[in-house]
Amino acid sequence: MSQHTDFAKSHMDKCIEALKANFARVRSGRANPHILDPIKVDYYGQPTPITQLAGVKVPEASMLVVEPWDKTALKAIEKAIEASDLGITPSNDGVSIRLPFPRPTEERRRELAKECSKLAEDARVAVRNVRRDANGKIERDEELPEDAQTREKKAVQKLTDSYVAQIEDLLKTKTAEIMEI
User: Fold this and answer.
1) Residue 140 and residue 89 share a domain
2) pTM, entire model
3) Distance of CA 170 to the CA centre of its chain
4) Which domain CATH number covers 79?
5) pLDDT above 70: residue 127
6) Where is the Ribosome recycling factor domain (predicted)?
7) Enclosing H/E stretch for 68
8) What is the DSSP string of 78-112?
9) Quick one: pLDDT at residue 46?
């Protein structure tokens, strides 16, 4: 592999990782601890991720249990979850916080599937932008003869096609998970 295809591959890998992270945050009716990743708790004046303050367990498919290591942080965690846009009402039993995930309606599942399609399209656009950047680098590389540039561009295109196929597979899997009753 040349430096140009290495550049493209590493950046396309980042696009796939970002898509996976975005898909993990989409609420599908199944309890997923990653949905709490973006929520920060005001802990002694510092915005701190919930995962650094508590253990997050999934005792059943539609329930998350947050157990803080420092019990004084319980109220702050509960407040941060309520203030977030998760749309889940936490219940505090004095030791842990339970987050019940209600089953989404058919209409809501369709909306979530559309949201995932948009995330996948954004990832495809990002992969194509990487391809464009890599091809630009190839064209500006004056040490490469014309036939080598053509080979490099074909390799980058083949790489692009494989990453777009990966995105399609991820979207299919996530859509099936969302539409599952």
Assistant:
1) no
2) 0.72
3) 11
4) 3.30.1360.40
5) yes
6) 19-179
7) strand 63-68
8) HHHHHHSSS----EE-SS-EEEE-PPPPHHHHHHH
9) 87
